[in-house]
Amino acid sequence: MTTTLAAPSTVGSALHASPAIDAAIRAIRHEVEAKQRELTGARPPRAELKETLDGWLKRATEVRGRGPLYPYLGSGVGNGALVELVDGSVKWDLINGIGVHMFGHGDPELIEASIRGSISDLVMQGNLQYNPEAIEFGELLSREAARSSRLKHCFITNSGCMANEAALKVCQQKTNAAPRIIAFADCFMGRSTTMSQIGDTAAYRQGIAQNILVDYLPFYDPEMGQRSIDMTLWHLEQLIHRYPGQHCCLIAELVQGEGGFHTAPREFFVALFEAARKAGIPIWDDEVQTFGRTESMFCFERLNLGEYIDVVTVGKITQACACLYTADFNPKAGLLSGTFAASTSAFATGLSILRRLQSGGYYGPTGRIARLHAAYREHADAFVARHPEWFPPVVNSLGRTTRTVVAGHGGMMRLTPFGGNRERIGKLLNNLFEDGVIAFSCGHGPYHLRFLPPVGVMKPEQFGPVFEIMEKSFARTP
């Protein structure tokens, strides 16, 4: 008689392979998808639910001490780029928590991944206790980064800001606590005391004691072309000459986020990175907002800049955030740690997102992200052509006039009405929200409309109803 031995397994692996759990999750997905199909387009609020929304907003104001930016409170149901609020209204969400929800609202695959993650014994994973999901998450990011760079190791943390804090610590340790940082004008780094100091927005550091020394470079100006490259390189060389050996890093957002979705060609960064590398200044690529949204998973890969990158930070769409670095920058024991890295559900959904990005045809010049951006450009260009009265020339931060009012890259889209006037754009944003489109602003003068649509699920043709609403909202903005 032959005895067949079962493959070795743990109680945990048996639980996660349970047919009963699979059946329950299928039932949940079926019910969610049935409700989602009721959301087919924007619709106004229901009058009888206004008091409910007002009550929630009052509670939010009281608990925080300040009212929310928008009267937004979700009902818990969405369908891709559409989201229902507690007042019964449905809106096109083109900001997605400033880019967190790349796959929109209520994505069935992510709901399933989140439920499977919630079965784990650990609600939160961290430095001392973690399960396989945390290792798999770090491995996947490291493999993708290593395809076109020297990046090797991955430290996981619980926010983009903390990923940036980790990157700064790694760079400072590598340079023996060099006290200065080089960053670009209009950059944004996060809201900790140090990151608020580095970010180039005065309001974000008002009343905070200075604790870091930052030197700013002008970002690329496409109206100036080569002169812009030469000017910024000159500024960098002056800083290196003025403070030899005192800079711990050069930080670059390859597409500026909060600063206005500014982009730059490869030759701009190569010139600066070559000069920094020659001076022994580490190069830190902040991709907390750009990661996953351009024509490659890492933006540095799109620009073929991997050879220069020493440290990179990612977040937002990944659900769990991370700081990656080369073997040369692997820090000493004790420098990086944290009680919380992410919830097990966040790791499960993050892994699901990354795997879909790898295999879903999102990248490349004809990928889904490029096609969605092309559709945005087509609608935006036609919109501007129909209404030149809303799009006068814009004076940029260097005092130069430009007629470029449609800009951005990949899933980072920008429109500049009213000459970039902050007050009018603020009124427009409120009108858009009331009419059924959620957007946001960016830039520091000129100001812009900022769109971070759910590029994982939004379809090019859905810009049609979005721009129909925009027509109405623009028309009633004084």
Structural overview:
The structure is a single chain. The chain is of the alpha/beta class and 478 residues long. It folds into 3 domains: 19-93, no CATH class; 118-359, Type I PLP-dependent aspartate aminotransferase-like (Major domain) (Aspartate Aminotransferase, domain 2, 3-Layer(aba) Sandwich), CATH 3.40.640.10; 368-475, Alpha-Beta Complex (Aspartate Aminotransferase, domain 1), CATH 3.90.1150.10. It has 15 helices and 19 strands. The strands form 5 sheets. A 7-stranded mixed beta sheet has the order 5-11-10-9-8-6-7, with helices on both faces. Strands 1-2-3-17 form a 4-stranded mixed beta sheet. The protein has a 4-stranded antiparallel beta sheet with strand order 15-16-19-18, with helices on one face. Helix 9 (226-242) runs parallel beside helix 10 (266-278). The longest helix has 19 residues, at 368-386. The protein is globular and about 65 Å long. The relative contact order is 0.14.
